[in-house]
Design a protein that fits this description.
Number of helices: 5
Structural class: alpha+beta
Helix content: 10-25%
Shape: globular
Distance between the termini: 12 Å
Oligomer: single chain
Largest sheet: 7 strands, antiparallel
Strand content: 15-25%
Order of helices and strands: EHHEHEHEHEEE
């Protein structure tokens, strides 16, 4: 990570490399106008709660998504929602609108903390509207609703067997001027 690039102390960096089959590859650069923006869990206060030291990588959720829904873009939330969403927006050359009241907050967290704290290690992904609707429809079977769809098409689902949450939190738009204007975690 960026925190090991420059330091006054001796740092040890460990990197893991892997391969993915091309049909399962999802990059930051595929979001399109009209896509819905989702996250897999709550955001904010990671450092205060110790979540950054005790988390489960969202590998099973990622595999489930790519096999069943093929997200158009995906990234882990390690630099805060604002920073990582902006990585997707820049790579995809699109903008976004977040539904602020739909962002799932860790208990005691503020929206500002969810946007900027970092180290949440949840997945941020985008789905075309038909796949977003399928994910929410799927929720009527193996998920249960924890929200009510509104004029902003907000809803969320939980897979009862696995305990996975998927929260729609916004939409991708064509206007690249609509970036998320908030800081994010920076290492320096």
């Amino acid at each position: 990570g960026g925190d090991t690039v420059r330091s006054d102390k001796v740092m040890i960096n460990v990197a893991l490399l892997g391969e993915v089959e091309k049909k399962y590859l999802v990059t930051r650069g595929g979001a399109k106008p009209g896509d819905w923006i989702f996250v897999t869990g709550t955001l904010g206060r990671s450092l205060a709660t110790g979540k950054h030291l005790n988390f489960t990588p969202r590998l099973k959720e990622a595999r489930f998504l790519v096999k069943n829904f093929k997200p158009s873009a995906m990234i882990d939330v390690s630099d805060g929602l604002a920073g990582d969403l902006n990585h997707v927006l820049k790579a995809s050359r699109v903008g976004a609108r977040l539904w602020e009241d739909a962002v799932p907050l860790t208990k005691g967290a503020t929206l500002a903390q969810a946007l900027t704290d970092g180290e949440d290690f949840e997945l941020l992904f985008t789905l075309k509207e038909s796949d977003a609707m399928r994910l929410l429809k799927w929720s009527r079977h193996s998920f249960h609703s924890v929200g009510i769809p509104t004029e902003h098409k907000r809803a969320s689902g939980q897979n009862k067997r696995r305990g996975w949450f998927f929260y729609p939190i916004g939409e991708i738009i064509a206007d690249t001027r609509e970036q998320i204007h908030a800081g994010s975690y920076t290492h320096f």
